[in-house]
Amino acid sequence: MKDFFGQQAQARRNTTLLVLLFSCAVVVIILSVYLAITAGLFLTQMFVSQGDWFIRDFWDDERFLWVVGLTMLIVTSGSLYRTYQLKQGGGAAVAEMLGAQRVPAATEDPLLRRLQNVVEEMAIAAGLPVPPVYLLPQAGINAFAAGFGRSDAVVAVTSGAIELLNRDELQGVIAHEFSHILNGDTRLKMRLMGLLFGITLISDAGIVMMTARNTSAYRTSGERGTHPGIALIGFLIFLVGTIGAVFADMIKRAVSRQREFLADAAAVQFTRNPAGIASALKVIGGYKGGSRVNHTATQQTSHFFFGNAVKSWENKDWWATHPPLAERIKRLDASFAGSFDTIDPGSRSASVMHEAVSSLSGQPSIEVLQVDVETVMQSIGQPDADALQQAVSLLERIPDRLRQFAHDPFTARAIVYGLLLDEQKVIRSAQLDALESQADANVLRELLDIQPVVSGLEAELHIPLLELLMPALKSLSQPQYKQFRQCIAALIKADNELSIFEYMLHRMLIRHLHPGFTRVKPAVVYYDVASEIADEAGLIVSMLIREGRHEHPEKVFDHAMSQVLAWQTGIQPSLQQSDLSKLDQALNKADKATPEIKRRLVKACVEVVLADGQVRVNEFELLRAVCDALGCPMPQI
């Protein structure tokens, strides 16, 4: 299985392939539309027209250019419009399109609380901000993840899934969906949805032509209707559009099928429990409702789901969006014979509810494991069961009151402000004065109430807590977010210094919150040779070395840079004395490098952090800031 950076490169290649297939589909549609229009004109001339539709030649350059222009206009404008719509809403747009509702932050429902706990554990184990969770009111057992990136991703689960799957099974399903987020599959599927929407508009154009009303010379005065020639051409274009839509659907289904086996395998690595996801698939196979989702938007979103969401007659192997259920199970459980036990929804849901109530009473803490560089690199984007157990342990150590406060937009802001309050009384007093003049009064009141708990929190729990806050902070309104950012800036500037934690928090908020409120251009790959970012890499590595306690920092630096530059010789930046003010520019440039260069840079940074045998909180905070800037999920070390 490829590592995270290999998966990012694969996702980039898949996007290129998708654009190529889309272009081929458009070319075929243009030729087909030309044939349809030409055939329509010939038939109209023969049977309907009285000379006003006279056509002499099959091929006409002017007619072809008109067809190319109009077809490209319809397809391109439709694709751009839908893609723009999806980018505005992110993964939430897909969830709401299907009628899903966001799970209330302070829910008392044991099943929903269990779902939130599972998602939180998965996110923290993967080094991701916790995504918003949606509930899809459908009896079928299914789930999906959607979003253009890790910052706007959401996870949605059907009612049937939370009612009929036990915790291990649900965990396997959620791990499968997190794999799609980490491997860039959700981005590909969002783009696919946007591109293919334009193709479906061709058949709509044909319908418009068939139903268009006009006044024609051959009709009696005042009589209105559709010209037979236009209706005929519209019908032929409708047929062409329908065929094009089928072709587009085949592209969507083929792209979807190839990624499902990978996500299943990643879920097993994540949970170290192949029986969990295999059992979930078996429940789907034995349940009368299966994984079907009955909604008008299911067809265009079918490639997002964990299992086949469309009607059974559309689930033929050559047409389905997912591999056959039995084949997926056999890859996870070689002993599976191919038959499914019938599921009784009543007894099954009662058993699941009992387990959910029991599981919320608490879970045992687990020791944090020691890791080496290769283990860390393998865990990036592909977290394993050890990372999941560590996430459970970290969540258990966060006070219950803070975990409850983390789910509400008001109290979540209060926690962030509390994390930034300085220990020195004079500076803290100035910060509180700034909040009194700028912050929401209700948030300030919550801050004063929760501050003693926040100030007593262990430093290594700050990042997991920030990841928990993300869903609540993403639900802020535009004015609230603007006010929130102003307050953050005031708190950071109060002492005229920038600490590692303040820098990390600011980078984390910008990376994962800002895209939801302001349009952000995605990073474009400009640098495919490591020497082009050698100075920037040297500055980043130097900053990390400064935060450690290395006996021979120059040797650590030289070794780290040899990792970044690989086989390139004659280029060797020196250990720099720099500060955080210059780090932003270096990270912004490094973010435009290829996945392979980013992999080498991240590995060099991890080696620096682990070089002295200890991982200090400030080192990990800076490492997390670097990885966030590079679009790389860094799990807790």
Write up this protein.
It contains 26 helices and four strands. It is mostly helical and 637 residues long. A four-stranded mixed sheet has the order 1-2-4-3. A hairpin with a 7-residue loop joins strand 3 and strand 4. The longest helix has 44 residues, at 4-47.
Quick rundown:
The protein is mainly alpha-helical.
Show the helix and strand layout:
Blueprint: H1 4-47, H2 61-89, H3 91-97, E1 101-102, H4 110-126, E2 133-136, E3 143-146, E4 154-158, H5 159-164, H6 167-182, H7 185-211, H8 228-271, H9 274-286, H10 298-301, H11 325-332, H12 345-359, H13 373-379, H14 385-397, H15 400-405, H16 409-420, H17 425-438, H18 441-455, H19 462-474, H20 478-493, H21 500-512, H22 534-547, H23 553-565, H24 583-590, H25 595-610, H26 617-629
Parallel strand pairs: 2-4
Antiparallel strand pairs: 1-2, 3-4
Order of helices and strands: HHHEHEEEHHHHHHHHHHHHHHHHHHHHHH
| Counted beta strands | 4
Structural class: mainly alpha
Average the pLDDT over all residues and give the rounded result. Answer: 82
In terms of quaternary structure, the protein is single chain
Outline type: globular
Largest sheet: 4 strands, mixed
Instruction: Kindly estimate the percentage of residues that lie in beta strands according to DSSP.
Output: under 5%
Poorly predicted tracts of residues: 215-223, 362-369
Termini gap: 22 Å
The gyration radius over C-alpha positions equals 28 Å
